[in-house]
Amino acid sequence: MVTRRYAVGAHYGLMDWLLQRLSAVVMAVYTLLVLAIVLWNGGIDHAQWTDLFGHGGFKLASFLFMVALLYHAWIGVRDILMDYIKPAGIRLFLETLTVIALIGYLGWTLQLLWGPSS
Amino acid sequence: MPGIVSILHRASGALLVLAGIPLLLYAVSASLASPEAYAAMKATFSYPVAKLGLILLLWAYLHHFCAGIRYLLLDIHRGIELEPARRSSAVVMVLSLALTVILGARLW
User: Fold this and answer.
1) Which of B54, B51, B62, B64 shows the shortest CA–CA distance to B20?
2) Which residues of chain A lie closer than 8 angstroms to B70, CB-CB?
3) How remote is the C-alpha of A83 from its chain's centroid?
4) Do A77 and B16 meet the contact criterion of CB atoms below 8 Å apart?
5) CB-based contacts of A91: which residues, under 8 Å, 6+ apart?
6) What letters, b where the CB count within 10 A reaches 16 and e where it falls short, cover A26-47?
7) Looking at chain B from residue 33 to 72, which residues have their Cβ under 8 Å from any Cβ of chain A?
8) For chain B, the helix, strand and coil percentages under 3-state DSSP, each to the nearest 5
9) What class is the A13-114 domain?
10) A12, A27, A104, B34: which sits with the fewest CB atoms below 10 Å from its CB?
11) Domains of chain B listed by start with CATH number
């Protein structure tokens, strides 16, 4: 039983809940889009694959997918860490590592999609 | 069964973050870099151990996808009663495993 209630908190819970679902829908739509493109062509060879990633609209869709994925991953990892890692110091350390890794992945994505070699 | 789907949703999510995202980025960058890098990546993924790892990640993606759709439906109060919820959790398990077998067989 709750005997004391704390009227504090960041109040980001509902927004995170909503964004977790919104990002899931974005990823599901992108997944089905890529699947449809591959199936439509009856499989995909290297040249078609490269062409696809040269297309501006597909680059943008891929970017949105990755942003949704990385944000979704952040909320998921944070929830897992909150549940299993009780010492605040270790949790903060792991959360920091996660954020650094995810931002790094975003940088990699940008390089991949709009970098000099693409 | 709903409890198993729930913990597997977590486990598959963790797996996708730890291995799935870096591997996805590596695979796409290699596949776009040059035909040689593309061939090298294909060679790496042709080892049976690598294929098993890919199939595990494939299952993780499919399970997370199917279970995620189920949660979205539960959120809008579809199948929220005990019996339908149990049935849909079984559907998630069977469907994600079946799709993994079908797609995994093609991969192999």
Assistant:
1) B54
2) none
3) 20
4) no
5) A81, A82, A85
6) bbeebeeebeeeeeeeeeeeee
7) 33, 35, 38, 65, 68-69, 72
8) 90, 0, 10
9) mainly alpha
10) A12
11) 2-107 (1.20.1300.10)
Structure tokens that stand for B76 in this block: 């809008």
C-alpha to C-alpha distances, B1 to B67, B82, B92, nearest whole angstrom: 12, 11, 10
- Which two structure tokens, joined as six digits, stand for B3? 């409890």
ipTM of the prediction = 0.90
Whether the CB of B22 is below 8 Å from some CB of chain A: the reply is: yes
Q: Which of B2, B27, B19, B24 is nearest to B88 (CA)?
A: B2
Q: Identify the closest residue of chain B to A63 by CA–CA distance.
A: B25
Which pair of tokens denotes residue B73?
């439906």
Residue B87 or residue A118, greater confidence: B87
Tens digits of residue pLDDT in B9-54: 999 999 999 999 999 999 999 988 888 888 888 888 889 999 999 9
- The structure tokens listed for A44 are 């995909």
**Spatial separation of the C-alpha atoms in residues A70 and B33, rounded to whole Å:** 23
Q: Which residues contact B80 (CB under 8 A, 6 or more apart)?
A: B74
